[in-house]
């Protein structure tokens, strides 16, 4: 039996992590749970985020997952350490993989981070970066308009370019910046527009890609990679309205031909 | 006390891994051991490589290392699983990190691998790549002239360009290739020449950089990162002739100003 990797997110942003997990680990089976009913987690209290996260985790643990990926920056910031301490399976978040990839990539130690207001004010990326190298120059910037824009399906074109360009203006003033972390799992969907605005000389790090890469490394290190030949059937669950969730899921996974033969999309009831 | 990361190699190639470990994990202390006296390991038997590798490991284990990095492709291919099973500390090799980084990087699943004759004929990279994704197109090529050229200090210029260009000719015919793994720890020293030959459209993956990145991830996952403020003093050991080893070490680390205030370079006696 191909034990699944569990992925939790406050909504649809974590689907970019799921997409990368399927791309980089095509033999692995995924169970994704998006708490779309109670999304966004950003403005909620620490206690509420913890409570909701644990409810999602219990739903997945009952499905016998072999690894948990917390694909939500807010949930990672508030609950990752507790989850790591309490669960008997490997648990990884989205913040440290992005930080480590940026440290790997930068040539001059000048790193930018963009994310939601919650993530940026939590300072989680700055802490993760400076814990490893105190000499890094880190410039953080909240881009509160990006998530609503992406959730409305606006990923490119004139309006997207103008929002991205105006939002990133403070970072474009930083001549030395050579690496930029997309510190929100929604942002890989507008990566091209961000790259165009910030310039080709800045390397863009997607937390989603890098989290999938580290999931691969941690599964390999713990000898947990699936070695059989079964074609995985992925399961996607949403706690809220199914139509939007299904549309966004199909949009994100559109390049996988025949993908939806091997996927189920269902409503999850947590309590 | 800042417990060190131990790095073993058959000679000087692993110094590129050590360099990346110090760059990406500047708080960590390193003990490097190069078996320059018995280098190269490539033409040796499986049993001999295992015996020599265990002698190096015992030297480092007596120095109470917290992690072992096997920075030699041959030693990784022959001993990694055994070392992982027997040692109570995390052990990582150079092959899987490069494979995972290439899978992360490629857009069209066409990956090239270059290495020594031993590494290429062992098929270790092809196996590591296909174990994760059986649908990858992998093109391997042995470049036996690169290591002796690098060890003679020839890293760029007309001769290096001609050797690299002639060696890579078969890969340059592969129109679809979008990612190339440097499957030998010497090759990052001629990365610029390789990039120039293979073209800017091919992403080059350095096993050395990616091994350091995964060492960072595995240390973080196991809560083994150093949290103190002591400046690390690195130790470099060679089993053979010290003059060449010292010259190459200084050459590889030359951009670290004041670096040699915090380094010792000594002869190691294994038996």
UniProtKB/TrEMBL annotation, chains A, B:
InterPro entries: Asp/Glu/hydantoin_racemase, Asp/Glu_race, Asp/Glu_racemase_AS_1, Asp/Glu_racemase_AS_2, Glu_race. Substrate binds at residues 9-10, 41-42, 73-74, 185-186. It comes from the Bacteria. Pathway: Cell wall biogenesis; peptidoglycan biosynthesis. This is Glutamate racemase. PROSITE patterns: ASP_GLU_RACEMASE_1, ASP_GLU_RACEMASE_2. The active site is at 72 (proton donor/acceptor), 184 (proton donor/acceptor). GO terms for biological process: cell wall organization; peptidoglycan biosynthetic process; regulation of cell shape. The keyword Cell wall biogenesis/degradation applies. Provides the (R)-glutamate required for cell wall biosynthesis. Coiled coil: none annotated. It catalyses: L-glutamate = D-glutamate. The keyword Isomerase applies. Keywords: Cell shape, Cell wall biogenesis/degradation, Isomerase, Peptidoglycan synthesis. The lineage of its organism: Bacteria, Bacillati, Bacillota, Bacilli, Bacillales. Belongs to the aspartate/glutamate racemases family. One of its GO terms (molecular function) is identical protein binding. It is an enzyme of class 5 (isomerase). PANTHER family: GLUTAMATE RACEMASE.
């Amino acid at each position: 039996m191909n034990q699944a990797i569990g992925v939790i997110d406050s909504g649809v942003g974590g689907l970019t992590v799921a997409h990368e997990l399927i791309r980089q680990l095509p033999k692995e089976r995924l169970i994704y749970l998006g708490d779309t009913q109670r999304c966004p987690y950003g403005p909620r209290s620490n206690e509420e985020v913890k409570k909701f996260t644990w409810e999602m985790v219990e739903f997945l643990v009952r499905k016998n997952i072999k690894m948990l990926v917390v694909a939500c920056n807010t949930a990672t910031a508030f609950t990752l350490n507790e989850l790591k301490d309490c669960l008997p399976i490997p648990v990884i978040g989205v913040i440290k993989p992005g930080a480590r990839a940026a440290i790997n990539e930068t040539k001059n130690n000048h790193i930018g981070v963009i994310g939601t207001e919650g993530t940026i004010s939590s300072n989680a990326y700055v802490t993760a970066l400076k814990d490893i190298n105190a000499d890094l120059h880190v410039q953080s910037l909240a881009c509160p308009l990006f998530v609503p824009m992406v959730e409305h399906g606006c990923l490119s074109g004139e309006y997207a370019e103008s929002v991205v360009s105006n939002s990133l203006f403070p970072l474009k003033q930083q001549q030395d910046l050579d690496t930029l972390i997309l510190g929100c799992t929604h942002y890989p969907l507008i990566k091209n527009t961000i790259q165009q605005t910030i310039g080709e000389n800045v390397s863009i790090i997607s937390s989603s890609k890098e989290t999938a890469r580290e999931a691969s490394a941690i599964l390999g290190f713990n000898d947990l990679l699936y070695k059989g030949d079964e074609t995985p059937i992925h399961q996607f669950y949403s706690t809220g309205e199914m139509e939007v969730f299904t549309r966004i899921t199909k949009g994100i996974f559109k390049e996988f031909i025949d993908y939806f033969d091997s996927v189920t999309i269902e409503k999850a009831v947590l309590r």
